[in-house]
Amino acid sequence: MTRVSSPLPVEILSVSALTRSVRDLLEHRYPLLWVAGEISNVVRAKSGHLYFSLKDDAAQVRCVMFRNRGQYLDWEPREGLRVEVRALVTLYEARGDFQLNVESMRRAGQGALFEAFLKLRDKLDREGLFDAAHKKPLPAYPQRIGVVTSPQSAALRDVLTTLARRNPSIAVIVYPAQVQGEAAAQQLAAAVASAARRGECEVLILCRGGGSIEDLWAFNDEALARTIHACTIPLVTGIGHETDFTIAEFVADRRAATPTAAAELAAPARSEMLAELRQLGQSLRRQMRFALDAKAQRVDSLASRLQSPADRLAASSARLGLARARITAAFALATRNAAWRLSHAIQGLAAARPKLQLLQQETVQLDEALRRATALRLERLREALARLSLGLAHLDPGAVLERGYAIARRPDGSVVRTSAGLQTNDLLELSFARGAASVRVEKPH
Q1: pTM of the entire structure?
Q2: Beta-carbon neighbour count of residue 124 at 10 Å?
Q3: What tens digit of pLDDT does each residue of 187-218 get?
Q4: 3-class DSSP state for residue 100?
Q5: How many Cβ atoms sit within 10 Å of the Cβ of residue 195?
Q6: Which of 168, 170, 246, 415 is the most buried (most CB within 10 A)?
């Protein structure tokens, strides 16, 4: 009898479990990586998320860049652009679609160029080519300005228009060179070196219009940077737009945001120069007037001091006569004053001579009056003394003691006026009219 064996059990996965497993496998197998391709089917949703496909000649893959990542892009992705994306390989489970979650995106080729730019910038910075100590000041009043750029460029037209508007008297010398392409960097360096060697101008402008990093790449050349650093003429750059930076601008003596701004930096405005000239003229006239007035006053002072010998002798004689008259008058006045003081002293002395007889009579009268007043005064004093003695006799404690009384004192000398403060066996000192005795209290009442 044949026995039929039962089949082995097989694990059956759901669709969601399968897609989740594939997603986990992809995300663990492929970490963040860079992928290059061409953008197609670009859609920006209302939520701000960016959906597109990245393709090459043989394949394509769906991509999504969420709003929180896409907001940092400073350019707009569009159909046909070659880009490089840094993305996570994953699977969108809801539809089972294989896709890339894009973290960042850049235009193809710019990453390598930017890295080369940073590498050269750091190298030249370490060598000191960007140091402020090497920057030359721009001349205040240049007579000739050199321009290194393409003769057909719009930047040259902007510079010439600005220079003609600000100061048409300044001569302009153009040193032609390509500003884009493989030979541009070499031609730019040769033009700058030629301008420095010929020494025809006081300031040099290196300029071109805006463009992408590829368009401006000639200005990131190391040979051009070293030529600018060695240039003996002050150099101003006006390359691209305000946000564009190149190595040439770091090395230059001054950087302007645009070619027009570079021309404004290099050339002073004619109106400003005329205004400054007027101010200098006014200041010079004021200083000349002040100097002439000071010299005129000095001449007047010296002229007033300049005299002939005859005039000086006559003036001295006049001063001598005046001094003689003053001395004579002063002597006469002093003589009169002395005579008056002598007469006054004689009169005073005569008035002060004493009259002896009259003085003797007055002395006798005063002596008698003094004796009477003295006797009267002594009598009054004796009566007052008697009254005071009688009063004292009534107040004299000794008189009270004479009548048989005694004064009781404590050992500290205080007088006992009442028995309320006494205690048994307290010691007291009794004072009599004649003598004293010590007693002890037996029982106070």
Answers
A1: 0.47
A2: 18
A3: 999 999 999 999 999 999 999 987 777 788 89
A4: strand
A5: 22
A6: 246
The DSSP output letter for 233 is S
How far apart, in whole angstroms, are the C-alpha atoms of residue 408 and residue 421?
Answer: 13
Is 76 in contact with 39 (CB distance < 8 Å)? Answer: no
Q: Which domains does the chain have, with CATH numbers?
A: 15-108 (2.40.50.140), 113-272 (3.40.50.2300), 401-440 (no CATH)
Most distant CA pair in the chain, distance: 203
Q: Report the Cα 241 to chain-centroid distance in Å.
A: 35
| Dihedral of the alpha carbons of 74, 78, 83, 88, in degrees to the nearest 10 | 80
Token look-up 């009477």 returns: 372
165 to each of 146, 160, 263, 264, how far by Cα in Å? 17, 9, 10, 10
How many CB atoms are closer than 10 A to CB 37? Answer: 21
**In the numeric block, which tokens belong to residue 217?**
């790449």
**In what order do the strands lie in the sheet containing 407-409?**
407-409, 427-431, 436-440
Kindly report, residue by residue over 270-305, the tens digit of the pLDDT: 877 777 788 888 888 888 888 887 887 887 777 767
Buried b (16+ CB within 10 A) or exposed e, 304-324: eeeeeeeeeeeeeeeeeeeee
> How far is the C-alpha of 312 from the C-alpha of 307, rounded, in Å?
7
In what helix (H) or strand (E) does residue 173 lie, and over which residues does it extend?
strand 171-176
